[in-house]
Amino acid sequence: MFTLLANSNLMAKNIYARTIYFLTEKSDQNNPIVESIQNQLHINIPYIEPSDLMYAMQRHKHKILMIDHQYYQSLNNQIRDLPLSNKMFEIILFNVIKRLTTEELLCFGNIKALFYRHESIESIARGCEEVINSQNWLPRKVAAQLLHYYRHVILSQTSPATVDLTSREIQILRCLKTGASNIQIADDLFISEFTVKSHLYQIFKKLSVKNRVQAIAWANQHMLS
């Protein structure tokens, strides 16, 4: 009876385990920082490619994605149909060279930890362990940056949830949520960059926002997908 109960508890723990996955273009190439973190924490960090993310959404509800910022742009080009800003994924970002803008930070949605290139493996491992335990590990300036932004959004958010947006404007808003540039949006929707800018002007006007960051915040709050 005791054995059955122990096995049941172990299965439940495995189902809800918070596991870090390293998002990489090539899962057969080891990353030295990730390997060092595994050794420090005595855990396994599986490698996952962008093409596997949609399948991962269906199977795992507690996935934490670790990303090498040096290769973020290349990864982002592959996974624009499944943005990293999706709230299902928590993000650990490492190898960051310089301080990111607020708009850049928001592209990662539920960012839980950020590590600059100069930080030690011990510091990164400790932060990752805290994230596994459902804590945040963000530099003080980054945390203050995000707090200031969200306070501003709450204070300035006067747009109603129901806004008379056209189907094309909704498409463009969804593209904005993925972090796509005007040129990328134009390519995806088979329209000119000038037309994209025109639509953005109308979107900002209808939502009573001033820029892309505020439009993305509105979309995250009011749009389901």
Structure notes:
The chain is globular and about 55 Å long. The protein contains 11 helices and 5 strands, in the order αβαβαβαβαβαααααα. It has 225 residues and is an alpha/beta fold. The model is unreliable at 1-16 (pLDDT under 50). It has 2 domains: 2-153, Response regulator (Rossmann fold), CATH 3.40.50.2300; 157-222, Orthogonal Bundle (Arc Repressor Mutant, subunit A), CATH 1.10.10. Helix 2 (32-41) packs across helix 6 (121-132), helix 8 crosses helix 10 (193-207) and helix 8 packs across helix 11. It has a 5-stranded parallel beta sheet with strand order 2-1-3-4-5, with helices on both faces. Residues 158-223 form the HTH luxR-type domain. Keywords: DNA-binding, Transcription, Transcription regulation. It comes from Vibrio zhanjiangensis.
User: In the CATH hierarchy, what is the superfamily of the largest domain?
Assistant: Response regulator
Secondary-structure element order, as H and E?
Answer: HEHEHEHEHEHHHHHH
Number of domains: 2
Strand order of the largest sheet: 2-1-3-4-5
| Helix coverage percent | 40-55%
Number of H/I helices:
11
| Cα shape | globular
CATH architecture of the largest domain: 3-Layer(aba) Sandwich
**Most strands sheet:** 5 strands, parallel
Estimated share of beta-strand residues: 5-15%
Instruction: State Rg.
Output: 20 Å
Q: Mean pLDDT, as a whole number?
A: 83
| Strand runs, count | 5
Spans with pLDDT under 50 lasting ≥5 residues? Answer: 1-16
Compute the separation of the termini in Å: 46 Å
CATH topology of the largest domain: Rossmann fold
**Assembly annotation:** single chain
CATH class division of the largest domain: Alpha Beta
Structural class: alpha/beta
